[in-house]
Amino acid sequence: MTPRPSFSAVAVACALLVASSLGAQPKPFTWPIAKPSQVGLNPAVLDSLDAEITAGKYGNIDRMLVIRRGRIVMNKWYPHDYDTIYGDSSRASSSLNNSHDPTGPFNYFNPWWHPTYRRGTLHTLQSVSKTVASAVIGVAVTRGEFPTLDTPILTFFDTTAVANLDDRKRRITIRHLLTMSGGFDWNESIPYSDPRNTAGALEASPDWVKFTIDRPMMREPGTQFNYSSGESALLAHIFFRATGVDIEEYAARHLFAPLGITNWHWKRTTSGAIDTEGGLYLDATDLARIWQLWLQGGRWQGTPVVSEAWVRESVTPQIATSTRAGAPKYGFKWWLYNNPVQKDAFIWAGSGFGGQFPMAFPDQEMVVVFNAWNIAGGPTLPLRAVQERLIRAAK
């Protein structure tokens, strides 16, 4: 068994001081409800978005949730008949219909699994799962139960069984995985419906961790952002090796429980590992609790869940995602969009396949969640325009 890395005694001592105040169960929580005008939001903006979504202007939007100053001001479902919309596609072989198990959880056209779990209220989050996995790591760091982010990831592997091993791979750290800069040879920049997309080969493989860690290297770690779901899949393995606890169980105890989240589904890969790259399902009102936790500096009902230092660092730009002007920056699995109204301000977001967009607007004290299932072309939510409308709606 691979030994766990040692921790700095000072770091552990400091973390234990924080952790000693963690673990107390919070009072039951239900989101209070208010009218938009009561929290300084222009209701006409929300009504216009609602009308546009209802009219189908943005395709298959499933949910819009708007929270300001801790109160829900809009929470709407938009039902769609996905059996009719994607029924034929669910039975036809494609990159989005996992050929080795067409009735299973990686057939993205199967309405038993997508966009909601068993046709219920838990909505697939897709790559927003990456952001939540990062939040769980932040909790573990806060509690002194996770190693420094500069620990080489091969610490957690039997290197005699790793293919394409070179010095660059030896230099990959946990920090590089959190910032999508591991340097693996990986192409996820083309549509997921394209069989050349590496993520499709990942999901079709029997062991996602081995598939990823065995990939050849393309560049020096830390030098360039390259979107890779495989790097996020590695985190489930690393988390267990580092802590001795499955990341879902750890999330249940130390993130979900303190926030009062009791209902979720988290898919596992064919090898049994938690799918930390895209497998989590939550109701929008529970997903919003995590984004609200970040707005509140890591505290929930007065109790620290994750340190303010981690919150701050995770939403600080760590790497550029593109050289394109106005492109978002990237934190620790957080997409950081430039605020279109305020200079040097960011919107803290997750982003998931099909149109999963939880967002925190720190300067507006606002959390917004959109769920959608636009996976086969057609109109989608114009995210930047909607962000600007929501910011300008806030007084």
Total helix count? Answer: 13
Note poorly predicted spans.
1-24
Mean pLDDT: 93
Strand/helix succession: HHEEHEHHHHHHHEEHEEHEEEEEEH
How many discrete domains?
Answer: 2
- Radius of gyration from CA coordinates: 20 Å
Classify the secondary structure makeup into a structural class. alpha+beta
Strand content: 5-15%
CATH superfamily caption of the largest domain:
DD-peptidase/beta-lactamase superfamily
Span between N and C termini?
A: 56 Å
CATH topology of the largest domain: Beta-lactamase
Query: Which geometry do the CA atoms define?
Result: globular
Main attributes of the structure:
Beta-lactamase; disordered N terminus; alpha+beta; 3-stranded antiparallel beta sheet; Beta-Lactamase; single chain; 395 residues; 13 helices; globular; 2 domains
Describe the protein in words.
The protein is of the alpha+beta class and 395 residues long. The chain folds into two domains: 111 residues, Beta-Lactamase (2-Layer Sandwich), CATH 3.30.450; 205 residues, Beta-lactamase (3-Layer(aba) Sandwich), CATH 3.40.710.10. The chain is 32% helix and 13% strand. It contains 13 helices and 13 strands. The protein has an eight-stranded antiparallel β-sheet with strand order 2-1-13-12-11-10-9-8, sandwiched between helices. A three-stranded antiparallel β-sheet has the order 3-5-4. Strands 6-7 form a two-stranded antiparallel sheet. The longest helix is centred in the middle third of the chain and has 15 residues. It is globular and about 60 Å long.
